[in-house]
Amino acid sequence: MNGAANGSDAIGVETDRGLITAPLVVDALGWRRVLAGPAGYQPPEAPLSRGLEVHPEGGATDLEIWIDRRYVPAGYGWSFPAGEETRIGVGSFDPKFHVRETTELLAEDLERDRVRYQGNWIPHQLRAATGRGVFFAGDSAGHCLPLTAEGIRTALYFGMALGRELREVVDGRQTREQAATRYAQFSDSHEWKFKWMLRTQKIVPRVPPRLLGPLIKVFGVKCFVDWSFRHYLNIAPPEFADPAPGQAKPEVPTAV
Ligand SMILES: Cc1cc2nc3c(=O)[nH]c(=O)nc-3n(C[C@H](O)[C@H](O)[C@H](O)COP(=O)(O)OP(=O)(O)OC[C@H]3O[C@@H](n4cnc5c(N)ncnc54)[C@H](O)[C@@H]3O)c2cc1C
């Protein structure tokens, strides 16, 4: 797919298999915002972080995070158990910092294999959720949360919100333009929360390393952790996946 759309009734998308037209088009193609048009979205100027991880075999029990300039000046390193493997990586809020070398360093420090690399750019700023007749959801709309770079839950959350609007269009209860207005308002209503996350993302690298330990102890008290995690979770609350008001819970297909 190589992009381009127009604002008339049917939207045309030029692909490597020719022009495809549809009345409703969603760009869920990730940070490149392919369908946003020629303006493009290019690192390192665009508001993007970068992340890379390796997936060595063998699980782990602990979920570990390093805020350590040995691995990245602005960002963090991680080691997360994921079933039969562990995901070890480094994320940099500064798109100019190359994370390959220090991802390998962290894996080496942990005496784990450097195999099965997975990396990408990660948006850390909301973008317009609609434009040129196209709807954007997930990384294409900057729906990945700054600071934590958690973007799967939010991609599903905003994707569901968009799906509900588009269902109303398909069923003839609203126009595409009305859906665009409502979805853009919904996405924009989260902007202040994303901005707070971005502010924190910018503050953390400025904290002198010697103060990090004591500060983490202070902020690590259970009541603060519970309070902040609840607020964080509520940016895209899991209950949003419950059926929309007036809609029945979708039936889960049974295996044959
Ligand atoms: C190293 C790393 C670790 C991460 N870890 C986590 C984590 O633990 N938890 C979490 O919540 N988030 C994590 N994230 C962020 C998360 O991966 C993204 O925010 C999330 O995947 C965004 O989902 P998306 O569907 O919007 O985009 P994507 O997952 O990027 O999906 C877009 C899809 O569109 C396809 N595509 C793009 N352009 C075209 C084209 N022209 N034609 C056809 N297909 C195209 C791509 O191949 C891709 O399959 C991580 C990111 C990185 C880089």
Short description:
With 256 residues, the protein is of the alpha+beta class. Helices cover 30% and strands 20% of the residues. Helix 2 (152-170) packs antiparallel against helix 3 (176-188).
Distance between the termini: 35 Å
Unreliable stretches covering 5 or more consecutive residues: 1-7
Helicity, in percent?
25-40%
* Shape assignment: globular
The neighbouring-strand order within the major sheet is 5-6-7-4-8
How many strands, which pairing sense, and closed or not: the largest β-sheet?
5 strands, antiparallel
Number of strands: 10
Radius of gyration: 21 Å
Strand % is: 15-25%
Small molecules held by this entry: flavin-adenine dinucleotide
Order of helical and strand elements: EEEEEEEHEEEHHHHH
Number of helices: 6
Quickly give the structural class: alpha+beta
Domain module tally: 2
pLDDT averaged over residues: 91
SSE blueprint:
Layout: E1 11-15, E2 18-22, E3 25-27, E4 48-54, E5 64-66, E6 75-82, E7 85-92, H1 100-109, E8 118-123, E9 130-131, E10 134-136, H2 152-170, H3 176-188, H4 191-203, H5 209-219, H6 222-233
Parallel strand pairs: 3-10
Antiparallel strand pairs: 1-2, 4-7, 4-8, 5-6, 6-7, 9-10
Bound molecules: flavin-adenine dinucleotide.
Describe the structure.
By secondary structure, the protein is of the alpha+beta class. It folds into two domains: 24-43 and 125-241, no CATH class; 48-123, D-Amino Acid Oxidase, subunit A, domain 2 (D-Amino Acid Oxidase, Chain A, domain 2), CATH 3.30.9.10. 30% of the residues lie in helices and 20% in strands. The chain contains six helices and ten strands; from the N terminus they run E-E-E-E-E-E-E-H-E-E-E-H-H-H-H-H. It has helices at residues 100-109, 152-170, 176-188, 191-203, 209-219, 222-233, and strands spanning 11-15, 18-22, 25-27, 48-54, 64-66, 75-82, 85-92, 118-123, 130-131, 134-136. The strands form three sheets. A five-stranded antiparallel β-sheet has the order 5-6-7-4-8, with helices on one face. The longest helix has 19 residues, at 152-170. The model is unreliable at 1-7 (pLDDT under 50). The protein binds flavin-adenine dinucleotide. Flavin-adenine dinucleotide (FAD) binds next to strand 4, strand 8 and helix 2.
